[in-house]
């Protein structure tokens, strides 16, 4: 019977850890394919979204993973990870509007800051928000590869998924 309890404890721990996984995804595309770079290596805790205690998330650029070593290296090079090792996502304001949550979020990378209005939904105890942004918002020229045959598009989809205490 004891092995059963140990297994049950182990599975419960795994489920709780998986349920609290926080991540930021950046989805983009080229004229050939699409890509997704994810960072889930920051505080794995439940965030508070009260007016007095809004999240300020610091992401290491080198923690983004695009699922392909070469693409990950290129992505980190585009964001100049050596000179600007961190990206910050700071919640400036957060309000509830019926079933939706509205936030003003400041994204800072490469010494450039931009504020965005982001709509969040509560999904399985996580605040999930999506926002279309552009490389050019941060004065980044989308790269070209293979002598210009592969062109990265300026448009990006930013997705936040943060465990919450709401």
UniProtKB/TrEMBL annotation:
<protein>
    <recommendedName>
        <fullName>Lipid/polyisoprenoid-binding YceI-like domain-containing protein</fullName>
    </recommendedName>
</protein>
<feature type="domain" description="Lipid/polyisoprenoid-binding YceI-like">
    <location>
        <begin position="27"/>
        <end position="162"/>
    </location>
</feature>
<dbReference type="Pfam" id="PF04264">
    <property type="entry name" value="YceI"/>
</dbReference>
<dbReference type="InterPro" id="IPR036761">
    <property type="entry name" value="TTHA0802/YceI-like_sf"/>
</dbReference>
<dbReference type="InterPro" id="IPR007372">
    <property type="entry name" value="Lipid/polyisoprenoid-bd_YceI"/>
</dbReference>
């Amino acid at each position: 019977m004891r092995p059963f309890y140990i297994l049950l404890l182990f599975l419960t721990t795994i489920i709780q850890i998986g349920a609290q996984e926080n991540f930021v995804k950046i989805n983009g595309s080229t004229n050939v394919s699409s890509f997704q770079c994810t960072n889930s290596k920051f505080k794995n805790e439940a965030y508070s979204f009260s007016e007095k205690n809004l999240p300020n998330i610091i992401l290491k650029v080198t923690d983004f993973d695009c699922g392909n070593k070469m693409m990950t290296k290129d992505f980190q090079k585009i964001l100049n990870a050596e000179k600007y090792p961190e990206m910050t996502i700071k919640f400036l304001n957060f309000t509830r509007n019926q079933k939706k949550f509205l936030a003003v979020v400041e994204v800072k990378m490469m010494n450039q800051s931009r504020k965005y209005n982001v709509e969040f939904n509560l999904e399985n105890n996580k605040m999930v928000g999506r926002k279309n942004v552009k490389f050019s918002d941060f004065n980044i020229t989308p790269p070209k590869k293979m002598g210009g045959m592969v062109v990265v598009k300026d448009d990006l989809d930013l997705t936040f998924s943060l465990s919450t205490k709401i």
